[in-house]
Amino acid sequence: MARFLKKTRIFIIIFWLLAAVVAVFALPNVSQLVQNKGQITVPRSANVSEGRRLQKKLNPGEAVSSDIIAVYNSGANKKLTKRQISEIRSAVRKVSQNRAKYHITAITSLLDGKSVRQQLTSKDQTTMLVQISVKSNQNQISQRSAKIQRALKADHLRLNMTGSSLVNHDFASATQDGVKKTEVIAIVFILIILVLVFKTPIIPVISLLTVGISFLTSFSLVTNLVQSYNFPFSNFTQVFMVVVLFGIGTDYNILFYTRFKRELGLNPGQNANEIAVKTLFSAGKTILFSGSSVLIGFSTLALAKFSLYQATSAVAISVLILLLVLITLTPALMSLFGHGLYWPSKNFDGEGGSKIWHGLTSAAVKHSVVTALATIVIALPLAMMFSNRLNFNDLWEVPNQYESKRGINLIQKHFPAGFSSPMTLIISGDKQLDNNQQLYALDMLQNRLKDDKDVSTVMGVTRPLGDRINQLYVNNQLKTLNSGISQAGSGVSTINNGLKNASDQLGRQQTNTNGVQRLIDGTGQLSSGANQLQTALNTLQSRLASGAAGADQLNGALATLSDSTDQLKGGVDQILGRLNQLDPNSIPTSAQIRGQIQSMQSSLAASLTPDKIGDIVTQTIQQGVASGQISPADVPVLSKTLPTVLQAILSQITAQLNSSMETILDSQSNNLAQLDSLKRQLNDLKSNLTRVDNGLGAMQSGIAQMRTGAGQLSSGMQQGASGAGEIAARTSDLTNGLAQIQSGQQQMKTALDGLASRSRELKNGLDRASNGLNQVGQGLNQGQSYVKGLVGNSSSEWLNVPDSVLHSKTFKRSLDQYMSPNRKTTQLTVILKLNPFSHPAIGVANHIKQVATRSLNQSGLDHAKIGITGTSMQNFDLQQISTSDFLRTAIIMLIGITLVMILITHSTLYAVTIVASLAGTYFVSLGIGEKISQILLGRNMLSWNVPFFSFIMLIALGVDYAIFVMMAFNEERGTTVERLVSASNRLGKVVMSAVVILGGTFAAMIPSGILTLIQVPIVVITGLLILAFVTIPMFIPAVITISDWMLRRKFASMKRFERESK
Q1: Tens digit of pLDDT for each residue in 235-284?
Q2: SSD domain: which residues (predicted)?
Q3: For residues 580 and 685, what is the distance between their CA atoms, to the nearest angstrom?
Q4: pLDDT digits (tens, 9 = 90+) for 38-67
Q5: Are residues 385 and 427 in the same domain?
Q6: pTM higher than 0.85
Q7: CA-to-CA distance for 407 and 400, rounded, in angstroms?
Q8: How far apart are CA 448 and CA 858, in angstroms?
Q9: Out of 23, 460, 718, 744, which residue is the most buried by the measure of CB atoms under 10 Å away?
Q10: Is 357 within a domain?
Q11: Is residue 65 within 8 Å of 111, Cβ to Cβ?
Q12: Residue 862 lies in domain
């Protein structure tokens, strides 16, 4: 073996040097790789992953875009001036007009109207935002953002570009800068420590050379696997490869070169080749066992589901390359340089034991029970100091000098904190969402989300700017309905008045038949007077003819004639007076009656239009929804069916009423015709009686002349007799005419009596219709009162988009903005009052998800998929995934390491004791580390990935030191206590040196400025100190001593029992 090593050592050295050179040339662009593939991703089952998949349905076919926020600030806590606003407007217009040049897919700014401008301007008027979506991946975002920033620059204004994408980019850049600082500091620190330990410059250089070759080779291999095969990778992969390789690599080199120096001192006559081989088989065995445990620990991380944890498995590749380098290159270098490795030292007697560890272990095994109990009692309170509350605020990770951090700080100072990173809730299903039922469900969801005290604004299709559009809500529409009901009530009142007028006229017609009877009686009196007049004229004619009367008798006869004429004229005047009272024009014609009925039918039809019926149906459904008797899901069906059914019923009622009226009109058609005839006869009678009255007046004048001319009567007696005969003949005609008139009057009365009977039936029908309309009016009044009660009631605060609005161009813009082209996917933008990066925002994100799920399950969207994107929801997913995956990975890792320890110690009890001690050290380190972070950094929580990184480092690296001691323990001879003390004394300096080097390597991460890379070293260094001074030299020996004593006692009892049995 020694000969083989001598022959091949040059080739081994050249091989690894060439491997390092090739690795350097094959190394891809690490910064670009970190930007493109180093971002944390969550599993497909996570809310954010589902949200991103659903988000693609909103704008299918569009390239991946990133959101940027341009933050304009006056810079002096003064309001933006008109000139500054004008400069912003000019710059934004220039960029907006050249969207293709700047790869912009969407831009929202003050150019989009007054409402948008108010929303994008802070309340103190000092800051204004411009929201921009840019087609880019993570690697392009910085360059394209810078290009847009140059175009948006305005004089005398501060402009910061920010957004989640830029924050992530700056975080990756800050991490890369931190890694570079860590590498330099770690190399310098390791050189100093190794020089102090070995008191030579040769070993430090050779040690760094072997570790450096391991790092370059493994890092090049990992990055090429990432580039070509998407091997898991993160921002932290490189930094942990550095600290682990330089840490344990140096530890292993210390063990190698310490053992080599010891062997050189023990075997002064042997050559370097033989001693190198001997060292390889002794120390190399320990290193292989130790390295295998680290390798297994990091390899188990490949079984994780979380990308960040998977990415840490790359360290396993580094450890594997390191072990290969150590068991090949290190022996070759030992063989080549030999004693020269320790120049200028000439002392090869080896180092003395560790007095500190010797003392600690001796005390522990001597007072094992006290040591174990005291350690547990002290450790428990320290471990319980850990709050188990983790910080997910990525802004804490980004130093303040980065522009994206400054922009976020400005937004959170002048706007609701959530404005810097809103959440987007995406809902997608197989139903069209652009209808009233689904819009109502979406609006109710917006209401419930807005009710959360930590939510500032919810924007969606029904509230594009976050505020309600009052015209789209039932409460506002009820006011219009109330006005319509009032108008309907007025219409019903008008119809009712018309029916009452028609009924009253028919009632007056009944009264007029009584007047006709008086007219017949007066005509009878007139006929009797005419008969008396005819008798008197006949007597006069007889007397004149016989010449038997004298002048006195003639005067007497004329006096009697005059009285009779006066009586006859009085009768005629009475008839004319009563005819004047019975005005024929006051009797309605059949056409007038029909016209009134038809007017009533038209008014009734006008009051029962489909629109007014629809209004009544709407308020009835609202009442049912408010009282819980009608489900919102049934509203669309009822809205479609009820108006049709109600229209059919009212149409049937109207048809029956019209039919009844037509039947009455048909049955009274003859009587109505007679009524028209009677009206004509009354007019003729009035005309004839007027002529009779005029004749009687002339007769009176003639009789007066006869009386005054009585003296002349004797001379003209013959003429008088002739005139009296003519008057008597005319009087007979008058008597016959009056008889005919009285007969006609009797017929008219009979006809009017029949008409009165029919009119009573018509009047009763009209009265019933009037009563029905009174009930309709009362119902309308009740409906109006109910509607007035609903106005302003919370139960009427729900959405109802009229069809005219739903299909308008204005509403289409909102649909296009918040819905997919097929209208089956929509989004809501939720802006929190809280900092979206903060821990409380995680709980709000979870609450929003629960509210959305519960709300949609209660609507017609219960089968829709829900996805949420945004920083707060991503942090919620990270919390759930990291916690569950950490526990699973930790269990696998502990089981693997336990198996390795069982193989080394040949004892399950020892293996479990060591692994449990390491786990206890981890929890104590977390408690102390959180307290140190709170005191020194002002952060009362550890970053969310600190527990994981600290665990794998402390367990995987801490088991290294335990293996060092247990391997030495196996080599020692004597009792368990003696072997423990001797192993601790021999390995104490090696382990303490390794702890110092590893602690210093982790401390090199602190100047990076990244919070995670500061807190992880705090916890790990705390754990290393506990391991170096408590766990390994005291607690583990004490527990092993107790367990050994118990086993020996049990064994002695069994022996005694066997002897007694014999």
Answers
A1: 888 888 988 898 888 888 988 888 888 888 777 767 888 888 888 888 88
A2: 203-336
A3: 11
A4: 777 778 888 888 888 888 888 776 666 788
A5: no
A6: no
A7: 10
A8: 13
A9: 460
A10: yes
A11: no
A12: 422-473+799-869
